Amino acid sequence: MREASDERLLRKVARGNRAAFDELYRRNAGWLAVRLRRRCPDPELAAEVLQDCFLTVWRSAGGFDPEGSAAAWLWTVASSRLIDAFRRQGARVRPAGEPAESALVAASAEDEALRRTMSPELTAALERLPPDLRAVLQSTVLDGRTTRETAALLGIPEGTVKTRARKARLILKEALA
Predict the structure, then answer these.
(1) How far apart are CA 146 and CA 151, in angstroms?
(2) Does 113 map to a domain?
(3) DSSP of 23-75, one letter per residue?
């Protein structure tokens, strides 16, 4: 199982293969937990969401598009479960620029990869964005959420998400011109 891709493991999970599920969990639970903790101030809730995510994966692996990315699909499931949890509890996620105190201090692998692919000018312009604008870009552009999902995640109206995204794009355009 260790040599199989995550995409192949998901196809096996869809057929009820427990060993494939265990391997998929072993490979992906760590990075999913870190990403969830960066967006959720409550460690118990983040752990509950991670469990709910993998329960959903076990039940819904047949919905995975074999042409897609397993990592992207897993993160979509996890972020959807987080949004549902926040709706149930009436909690509010921390914007990406405001990590919980117990979150890891080191930059995530995702952040490091983005830094290596972005120009220094773009990186500097993103870092200068106000946290509320940066959080909207993080959610919509980097995490691929819809306006509605971002609004629920950040606890703001959909119109505010659209306004902040537009403002952030204008600021970035000016900074990079």
Answers:
(1) 8
(2) no
(3) HHHHHHHHHHHHHHHHH-S-HHHHHHHHHHHHHHHHHHGGGS-TTS-HHHHHH
Task: Quote the domain boundaries for residue 152.
Answer: 118-177
**Are both 99 and 123 inside the same structural domain?**
no
Residues 33 and 61 in one domain: yes
Q: Is-above-0.85 flag for pTM?
A: no
Q: Are residues 36 and 82 in the same domain?
A: yes
Q: In this structure, are 50 and 78 located in the same domain?
A: yes
What CA–CA distances, in Å, run from 18 to 21, 24, 29, 127? 5, 10, 16, 43
66-121: per-residue pLDDT in tens? 888 888 889 889 988 888 888 887 645 445 445 444 444 445 545 555 555 567 78
Which one-letter amino acid corresponds to residue 100?
A
Give the type of residue at 32: L
List, in order, residues 6 or more apart from 111 with CB less than 8 Å away. none
